């Protein structure tokens, strides 16, 4: 049976009450590089997004869940399935733990494990993939810990400070 609750965290659907949290995360320029964001988001746009968050993954082609500590409703991060492709049974995965103090504590690891189980057991996906900046050692470690394997490197893929860096494609095939 698939559960979205672990020992320390659980994953839940986004709610209207998450507006300020999502607004802070989406507008945190320090994580724009890992989230492929280039411009700020308004509260209006995020409110519209949350109003449409009721769409299921088959309709929206994505699923964004809040990461919460057990016993608390407050989100500490976000985890996504994106580019959901039910025909080819695959989806991309993204994760962010917003506060640095909550990183490297096992919360992201447990969250990713719950999402992988959900993707393979409930959605019956064949594969998951992650696009990771080659300099993001923490993310590479997190994903390879679950068996994601390097499938290739996209050269000069990410523009940072008027120069380019490579992005790696990692895959987990069931």
From TrEMBL:
This is GNAT family N-acetyltransferase. Residues 9-171 form the N-acetyltransferase domain. One of its GO terms (molecular function) is acyltransferase activity, transferring groups other than amino-acyl groups. Gene3D superfamilies: 3.40.630.30. Keywords: Transferase. InterPro entries: Acyl_CoA_acyltransferase, GNAT_dom. PANTHER family: GNAT-FAMILY ACETYLTRANSFERASE, SPERMIDINE N(1)-ACETYLTRANSFERASE. Pfam families: Acetyltransf_3. It comes from Flavobacterium album.
